[in-house]
Amino acid sequence: MDFTDLVVETRFAAPPLLRDDEPPARSERRPDAVRVPRGAELFRAGDLARRLYEVRSGALMLYRLLPDGRRQVVDVATAGDVCGLASAGVHESTCEALADSAVVAIERRALESDPRLGDRVRGKLERAACALHARIVDLGRKGADERVASFLLRLAEAAGDGDAATFPAMTQAQIGDYLGLSLETVCRAFSRLRGRGLVETARGGRVRVCDLARLREAAGDA
């Protein structure tokens, strides 16, 4: 099987661009949520950062392009995460939906006028900072198989489906850009994890965790 494009199935067709400086359209299913179809850009690097976004469902990829065209995936936001942070009033990364997603737009000025909202967002950002510390350990001290296992473990825990967890539509090239690994290295790591019976690929190229406890051991987190 060719693992170059390891994706999950999706339902929405490819999308119009959703920009941060445009008023968000309301989701039909959830009035307070913005629908972001797979492949749509929620915002681009250089856009004004007027809002934060809380992910209600799906998954979003934040990445930066280097001057030579290489891409570095800096984060993957799943349900419950907040994205859209900016230090100088503009976004430094582009945010693209990996799967059909829904987000809630949070005006920055609302964080000052609504203390409860501000506290909730700060709590999410604290958890994100802790996750960043864990990722630094992954990149600095773990081998390729451990990095890939840690990445899958994080997504499985975010999905909350235990051993039945499946993952967003992310190619192995994108996973490599996130973990600092070449495509070939990611492919070999996936093959070894499959050979150990830790994950399997289902119809449509979806990835399924077969044994969450052993995947945690493979990630070096047991």
Can you describe what's shown?
- The structure is a single chain.
- The protein is of the alpha+beta class and 222 residues long.
- It folds into 2 domains: 34-131, Jelly Rolls, CATH 2.60.120.10; 143-218, Winged helix-like DNA-binding domain superfamily/Winged helix DNA-binding domain (Arc Repressor Mutant, subunit A, Orthogonal Bundle).
- Helices cover 35% and strands 21% of the residues.
- The chain is built from 6 helices and 10 strands.
- The chain has helices spanning 108-113, 115-141, 144-159, 172-179, 183-195, 212-218, and strands at 34-36, 41-43, 51-57, 59-65, 71-78, 82-83, 94-97, 101-107, 199-201, 207-209.
- The strands form 3 sheets. A 4-stranded antiparallel sheet has the order 1-8-3-6. It has a 4-stranded antiparallel sheet with strand order 2-7-4-5. A two-stranded antiparallel ribbon has the order 9-10.
- Strand 4 and strand 5 form a beta hairpin.
- Helix 3 packs across helix 5 (183-195), helix 3 runs antiparallel to helix 6 (212-218) and helix 4 (172-179) crosses helix 5.
- The longest helix is centred in the middle third of the chain and has 27 residues, at 115-141.
- The chain is globular.
- The model is unreliable at 1-31 (pLDDT under 50).
